[in-house]
Amino acid sequence: MKPQEGMVLWVELGKRLPPGHEQEGRRPALLVGVPSRLGNPRFPLLLVVPVTTYREQSWAEVAPRLYPRLKAGAGNLPRESIVLLDQLQVVDAERVAMVVGQLNESEYAPVRDGLKVMLGISPEGSL
Questions:
Q1: Residue boundaries of the structural domains of the chain
Q2: Which of 57, 93, 106, 120 is deepest in the core (most CB within 10 A)?
Q3: Integer Cα distance of 81 and 52 in angstroms
């Protein structure tokens, strides 16, 4: 697998101890960062954002930029889904069970734009 931003992956997110609000277990996640683009990393790590099924969650409705929605079929996801930008995390590439699909540019754009603001990369998110 040659990692690319916008890939939908099936990954194993480890169990958190003590438990918190982080996503856990085997689930879909969106690849949003490839550290090897900056050089030869010590370990094969990937930046991912978990994805969950959209069920008209009120918290997603009031913060659509933090929780971009994907239509059913986007990246081969079977149901309408939400990208959980507030759950950005690093995983070892060995935790990737399979590649599910790939978002197209228009599907990935709200995710990329949200990350830029959240990480202070765009003028709107600057300190």
A1: 7-125
A2: 93
A3: 5
Taking domain 7-125, whether its CATH number is 3.40.190.10 is answered by: no
DSSP state, 38?
Answer: G
CA distance 52 to 24: 11
Residue (of 81, 76, 85, 79) closest to 104 by Cα position: 76
CA–CA gap between residue 84 and residue 5 (Å, rounded): 15
The answer to whether the beta carbons of residues 30 and 51 sit under 8 Å apart is: yes
Question: By CB neighbour count within 10 A (0-12 exposed, 13-18 middle, 19+ buried), where does 12 fall?
Answer: middle
How many Å apart are CA 65 and CA 82, to the nearest integer? 11
Q: Note the pLDDT tens digit of each residue in 18-64.
A: 666 677 678 999 999 998 888 988 999 999 999 999 999 999 999 99
Q: pLDDT tens across 58-83, in order? A: 999 999 999 999 999 999 999 999 99
